[in-house]
Design a protein that fits this description.
The protein contains ten helices and five strands. With 234 residues, the protein is α+β, with helices and mostly antiparallel strands. The chain has two domains: 88 residues, DNA polymerase, domain 1; 122 residues, Cytidine Deaminase, domain 2. A five-stranded mixed β-sheet has the order 2-1-3-4-5. Helix 2 crosses helix 3 and helix 6 runs antiparallel to helix 7.
C-alpha cells in the first residue's frame, strides 16, 4: 500500500472517530469498510464501482454473492466479509430484541424484520416467538417459496411454539415483488395460524409485511383478520 493510500485511510478513520458516520459520504463508508477486507490496496475505486452497480449501500448489503463477484475487484474473501457484516447486524438486532417486551419495542421489531428480510429474492414466512410476558424468545424464518401452499404451516408453527414454550406469536413475511398490501392467501394463512394458536391457548399479536424498507403491521393498517376489509391491490 502506498504512503498516499495509507495517509488517506488514516484521515478517513480520523473523520469517522471525530464526526461519526455522518461525516463520511456513502462511498467513503464502503471504502473504509472494504479496507478491513483488503488492507493492502486502495479501496476507493472498488467502493465507487460497487455503489454505482447496486445504487447505494442497501443494494450492496442486499446483493447476492454472485452479483458481488461480478464486480471487477471483488473476490470471494471480500464477499464473505460483507456477508459476515450483514449477519453480525442481524445477530445484534436479534440479541437486542431477545427478552424485550414486543409491545413496548415496535420500532426495534420493525428494524429487526427489515434487516432480516430486505433483499431476499424469495418470499419468506417466519415467526417471532414470545413468552407469557410478551418477551421475545426467538425469531425464525420457517418457510420459503410459494405461500399459497399453506396447509401445513399452522401445524409446523405450533410444533415449534411448543418446543420453545411460547405463548404469543408475531408473524412476518415479505413481498419481493413489491406489493404493499397482503394477498388473500396471506390473510388465509394468518387466520389459520390464529385459529391453531387459539386451540393451544396461544395468541397471535400481529403480522408484519416487509416490503422494501418498510415493515407494515396488519393490526395498525386495519388489515384482516385483525381489521375490516381487504385493501385494494394496485
Amino acid at each position: 500500500m502506498s504512503e498516499g493510500t495509507a495517509g488517506h485511510r488514516k484521515r478517513l478513520r480520523a473523520r469517522f472517530a471525530q464526526g461519526g458516520i455522518g461525516a463520511l459520504a456513502d462511498y467513503e463508508v464502503l471504502e473504509l469498510l472494504l479496507s478491513y477486507a483488503i488492507p493492502r490496496k486502495d479501496t476507493k475505486p472498488l467502493a465507487k464501482r460497487v455503489l454505482a452497480r447496486f445504487g447505494g449501500l442497501a443494494g450492496v448489503v442486499d446483493a447476492t454473492d454472485r452479483e458481488l463477484l461480478d464486480v471487477p475487484g471483488m473476490g470471494p474473501e471480500t464477499v464473505l466479509f460483507l456477508r459476515f457484516v450483514r449477519a453480525f447486524l442481524q445477530r445484534y438486532l436479534d440479541s437486542r430484541l431477545q427478552g424485550r417486551e414486543l409491545v413496548r419495542t415496535p420500532e426495534l421489531v420493525r428494524a429487526h424484520l427489515r434487516l432480516l428480510l430486505q433483499g431476499r429474492r424469495t418470499e419468506c414466512f417466519g415467526v417471532i416467538f414470545a413468552d407469557r410476558g410478551l418477551r421475545a424468545l426467538a425469531t425464525e424464518v420457517l418457510f420459503e417459496g410459494d405461500l399459497g401452499r399453506a396447509a401445513v404451516y399452522p401445524r409446523l408453527i405450533m410444533r415449534r411454539a411448543l418446543e420453545l414454550d411460547a405463548a404469543s406469536l408475531v408473524l412476518f413475511h415479505n413481498h419481493p415483488g413489491g406489493a404493499k398490501v397482503p394477498s388473500e392467501a396471506d390473510v388465509r394463512i394468518t387466520q389459520a395460524v390464529i385459529e391453531a394458536a387459539k386451540a393451544l391457548e396461544m395468541r397471535v399479536l400481529d403480522h408484519f409485511l416487509v416490503v422494501d424498507d418498510e415493515a407494515l403491521s396488519f393490526r395498525e393498517q386495519g388489515w384482516p383478520p385483525f381489521g375490516g376489509c381487504m385493501p385494494p391491490r394496485s
